[in-house]
Amino acid sequence: MGSAVELEMISITRLAFPLLAASILGLFASVAEGQVFTLSKQELTDYTSQNPFERFPDGRPKVPDEIIDRARGLSNHSTTVVRLLVAAAR
What we know:
This protein is mainly α.
């Protein structure tokens, strides 16, 4: 058995690596971008070609405020069910 000082140093050493790893991961997470990829204007227009609304200059659809207001209270599950039902009806 080692002395109390040696045991304390071993305890500190065992904690040091996980704390260092967590700090490094936290640093990278704070500078990481939320959007992993972006689409060009043409790719976005092609991807949303069935969109019946006007578009912003960068190609994004201008969805009317009334539709956005109606969708605010919906859950992801609800919108998925509706989308699947609409797709099945086609």
